[in-house]
Amino acid sequence: MEKKMRFPVYAQIIAGVILGVVCGIVLPEYSAAGGFLGTLFLKLLKMLIIPLIFSSIVMGVVSTASASSFGRLGLKTLVYYISTSLMAILTGQLFVNLLKPGIGTHLHAAVRAAPTTTFSIKDIFLNMVPDNIFSAMANGNVLPVIFFALLAGFFIGVLGDKPRQTLTDLMDAIYQLMMKITGFVIFLAPVGIFGLIYKTVASTGAAVFGNLMFYFFTVLAGLAVHFFITLPLLFYIFTRQNPYRFMKQMIAPLITAFSTSSSSATLPLTIETIEKEAGVSNRVAGFVLPLGATINMDGTALYECAAVIFIAQAYGIHLTMGQQVVVVVTALLVSIGAAGIPMAGLVMMTVILKAVPLPLEGIGLIIAVDRFLDMFRTATNVFSDSTGARIIDHSEQKRLGKEEEGLEASPPSAQRPQRKEQREF
Ligand code: ASP
């Protein structure tokens, strides 16, 4: 329906961005009003995240006919997520080693107070399992909620007929309700995005870049290659369709990711848009995207790797091959463990700095431009999740088509089991 409107939502969103930039430059003194609108929009999105993630993942798992097809979907998702994150990391590594933006950085001029929180790799895994599912939900801790939802979806499938049906219907109803509310929130996106951009432009001057300009553009170049070349190429190889058309279809969530710097807050829009605009099935979108918003962060992974090597260069520390491998592996883990919220990547960087090891204060060096890079890396994160969902949906459809062809050729007794049928355990 939106497509036929004279001024479609994506055009309204682009208009919101342009107006936000103009107002931020011309009328910075009124930016508080923009901040108010932006925060309101962000809160509306955030209020949907937990019920949406929980119900969509449970439904994704429940609606998978058998443990083996669930395993197949899960495996495809993980293989895509890990391989694209690695590609992103290697791109970041290549750019920062070639351009060497850290050499000659005037350390003391740039250093600011670094965040004090430190994580370890062990914590990333421990944090996946909730102590208390209700407190995880109340605090918006997405990873433990996903863990519980995966288990719940799987075990709902092994319950008896009545409880299985009741819980499936309940989850389905919650999911549909969340999508309806998302549809309403999308109408407010242009105004919310206008507010967020207005506030950001008004509160930041060019001076913030200082001698980090070269670093900023190095990371940006890496992100651009991943966003405009690597992911579209993968999209084309697996679907044989035009990736840039798909990018245009996903413009609303991409701009929302850019202006909110939060993959999790963007999730409701990503699901809604990919189903409506790109025709991805509910089963795949509902499973692949919530997982992706939490564990698949190509932009963050690329940025972590580039930033850590930049810090080493700025301190004049030569990294051996072994240490560069440590950076790559820990950048991958950190991107999996980072939450889909603003500046999560920066805080998690301590894990890599400790593993190499490099001075933790190095974070203070890059903090000034982190908020901007966050906008670009979050858009990259969301585009990778969306590309993954589209590719996986394409391969699932193909498989389904083949199965159906096989069924037509085989006797009725060999028919495929119905979805939502009780799973063997
Ligand atoms: N803001 C990013 C996201 O939500 C995470 C990060 O890199 O800080 O995807």
List keywords for this structure.
binds aspartic acid; mainly alpha; 17 helices; 425 residues; Proton glutamate symport protein
The CATH architecture assignment turns out to be Orthogonal Bundle
> What's the level 1 CATH class?
Mainly Alpha
- Which runs of at least 5 residues are low in confidence (pLDDT < 50)? 412-421
Helix content: over 70%
What is the chains' assembly state? single chain
Chain-wise SSE layout:
Blueprint: H1 9-26, H2 31-62, H3 67-99, H4 107-110, H5 121-126, H6 133-138, H7 142-156, H8 161-203, H9 213-239, H10 243-249, H11 251-260, H12 263-276, H13 282-295, H14 298-314, H15 321-337, H16 344-355, H17 362-409
Helix pairs in contact: 1-8, 1-11, 2-7, 2-8, 2-12, 2-13, 3-9, 3-13, 3-14, 3-15, 3-17, 8-11, 8-12, 9-14, 9-17, 11-12, 11-17, 12-13, 12-17, 13-17, 14-15, 14-16, 14-17, 15-16, 16-17
Bound molecules: aspartic acid.
Give a description of the structure.
With 425 residues, the chain is mainly α. The protein has one domain: Sodium:dicarboxylate symporter (Proton glutamate symport protein, Orthogonal Bundle), CATH 1.10.3860. The protein contains 17 helices and no strands. It has helices spanning 9-26, 31-62, 67-99, 107-110, 121-126, 133-138, 142-156, 161-203, 213-239, 243-249, 251-260, 263-276, 282-295, 298-314, 321-337, 344-355, 362-409. It is globular and about 70 Å long. Mean pLDDT is 87; it is low at 412-421. Bound molecules: aspartic acid. Aspartic acid binds next to helix 16 and helix 17.
